[in-house]
């Protein structure tokens, strides 16, 4: 019997193997499992876009509401106060408006998540893998309670552009590039794990617990298949 040749090019999606790289490349164009996984990733990015848009809209409404309340309060004070009091109110209004200093995009502050009141939230993020990662991104960039982290201005869902805060200015960027940066696996995983370890007093613990291990496995299942496949084809 003629010996069968070694099949060294394997599809990481369906595990089919081929003798030649060109055959694997051709297979990847029609692999159903690959298409399913890519569709899942596409939907998750789309969900993130929608979530960002919704939360930004809610934050804008909240800010407008606060501004209206301050204006009403100031008008009332102006009608019932002396000039000295009016000057004080005016100064306070300036302080309120200037109190929020936006961080630069990419330098958002996540220390607030290390508060014990977020312990349950962080554990839930890890338990839900990639979906939890999406929630983490929303809390980081779109939290009305942390307006200094709203470093992305996204007002038109149909546009392929958005603006990011850089050096105290708004700069226009390609939306897809920014979303890919938001979904950077290594950065997000490191941040989430550091916060989780802090709120659970695991900073000095060398070994990961079951929740951390499960989280990494779920995230890796989404990202690693594509990376390994690209390595084979390079």
From TrEMBL:
Ranges in a coiled coil: none
Domain annotation C2H2-type: ranges: 9-38
Disordered: annotated span: 64-92
SUPFAM superfamilies the record matches: beta-beta-alpha zinc fingers (SSF57667)
Protein name from the UniProt record: C2H2-type domain-containing protein
Taxonomic source organism: marine metagenome
């Amino acid at each position: 019997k003629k010996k069968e040749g070694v099949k060294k090019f394997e599809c990481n999606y369906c595990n089919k193997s081929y003798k030649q790289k060109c055959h694997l490349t051709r297979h990847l164009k029609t692999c159903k499992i690959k298409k399913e996984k890519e569709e899942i990733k596409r939907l998750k990015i789309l969900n993130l876009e929608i979530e960002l848009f919704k939360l930004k809209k809610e934050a804008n409404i909240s800010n407008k509401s606060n501004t209206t309340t301050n204006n009403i309060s100031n008008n009332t004070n102006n009608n019932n106060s002396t000039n000295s009091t009016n000057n004080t109110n005016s100064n306070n209004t300036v302080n309120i408006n200037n109190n929020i200093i936006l961080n630069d995009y990419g330098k958002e502050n996540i220390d607030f998540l290390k508060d014990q009141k977020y312990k349950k939230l962080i554990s839930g993020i890890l338990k839900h893998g990639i979906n939890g990662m999406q929630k983490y991104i929303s809390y980081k960039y779109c939290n009305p309670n942390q307006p200094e982290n709203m470093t992305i201005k996204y007002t038109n869902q149909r546009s392929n552009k958005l603006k990011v805060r850089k050096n105290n200015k708004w700069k226009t960027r390609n939306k897809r590039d920014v979303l890919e940066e938001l979904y950077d696996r290594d950065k997000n995983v490191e941040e989430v794990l550091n916060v989780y370890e802090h709120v659970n007093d695991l900073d000095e613990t060398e070994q990961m617990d079951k929740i951390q291990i499960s989280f990494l496995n779920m995230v890796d299942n989404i990202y690693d298949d594509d990376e390994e496949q690209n390595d084979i084809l390079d």
